[in-house]
Amino acid sequence: MNKRKSAVALGLFDGIHLGHRAVLNIAAESGLVPSVFTFDPETVAVKSSLGYIYNKEEKDRLLADCGIEQVYSVDFGDVCGLSGEEFVKNILIDRLNAGFVCCGNDFRFGKNASCGIAELCELGKKYGFDVCIADDVMYEGETVSSTAVRNMLLNGDTVRAGQFLGEPYTIGKEVVHGAELGRTIGFPTINQVFGKGQLVPKFGVYATDVLIGGRWRRAITNIGIKPTVNYVGIPLAETHIIDFSGDLYGKNLRVRLLEFIRPEQKFDSVDELKRQIAEDTESVKHIINI
């Protein structure tokens, strides 16, 4: 157990949107060790069945960016059977040495989500920690929520999703080998595969940028299943980095989705696909100012 008292932000924090950031800011500004209790996104069955927004690695990066020093992320199955008091005693007190706890007003805990804010406050009195509940965050008249962000991404509205998230939606994945068709037609791409159970944004072509060597480089990304070449597999993101050459295989790269250009489509020939990629690349040059 930590000797210093911690300020623990509680939540799934799927996406780290503006509402989540309000909770995290409370912990970060508490004067105690800014901490988070959360779940590994791959182990949580999202109620909407739309999938998790960010994998654990991307989520951890965002939490660190928000000033969180200590993250306790667990498999949902390992704690879902705990009673509310067992959760507080075993995790908040014994594991995290909480002196302060904060969360959103819809946070639930304990077996079968049987406990809410009232129970958390009562247990705080019993175990000696203060509780702060963050208000909902509104953006242009709409409540910021993970469900709203998911729906925006599924509709290809990456601009508004980025506003709700506080920064552009990002694909943070390892670059893997693909069929290398792009290389043969003059548009080499990096390939990143979405995880099982992860939300996949609307299939189509996006204006994007990629962080390489500390610099964001303009790019164009196709998300989908490559219908022209009859790809069979998990949806992936194929990104062509404009005016760049180099071996990026095995690197973990961040690709930001900035603007949706057009839906994914099947072309009658590879030559037709090549012509369309050239047109899309030119349009991206005029959309993005980097």
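(the above was protein one; protein two follows)
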Amino acid sequence: MGHPSARGWFVHLFLNGLYWGIYNLTERPSASFVAHHFGGSSLNYDSRNADKILLGDSNAWTHLFSLLNAGVSDPSGWDELNRLIDLPAFADFILLNLYGGNADWDRSSNWYAARRRVPPGPFHFFVWDRERTLEFADVDLLSADDDQSPLRLFQILRKNPAFQRILSLQAHKHLSAAGALGASPAAARFPALSRVLETAITAESARWGDYRRFIHPYKTGPFERYTREAHWRPEVQRILRDFFPQAFLGPRGITSTG
């Protein structure tokens, strides 16, 4: 979608010689990451992982939510909001999470945000630890809300006609047939990623495939032994067959959120 995001690659992990499975060795979108992409020293940034302040302070963050929760109804308030958030980038962040049906982005969950403090800059939001996505194509997150989180920002901003126009433009750009979230580009991207793991996942299943069955039964049985053939490949096909086409068509109203 055209924004900086954490880069990573898949590795086999050994701990003191013991095979531990497949991991995604990944950058963290913290202050040093943001400084690398937007310039300056990491010491000049406010950086947070959800409700945890990693660097800097929460003054601008508190000011942002005070402004929003009080209601932005005048031009001066809108101008201040534009100084505090990169609104087109935030619209893309929202679209991506709605599209993926993310179930893990409340105030204390998995997302990063950072802004340049000296000189003052807007907050940028970064996806992180998104394993709770691509689960069900009919998940509707349009009413999800939680203070001090991107969810609250979205719920307040979506009432503003100016942000509605921004969101509509970004939705048209990314949800079009050739856009980043279009059915064909998404369906082409996902197999390319899954093929990287097609062979390696056998080692993962050999290490952890019986974990739920014999070591840590979860919820109620019957407990299965996870394998590539019975679980990995069918899940890849489910996402290709059931998720991308429906998410693109917008059954949850994504194409009309503006």
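Reviewer note on protein two: The chain has ten helices and six strands.
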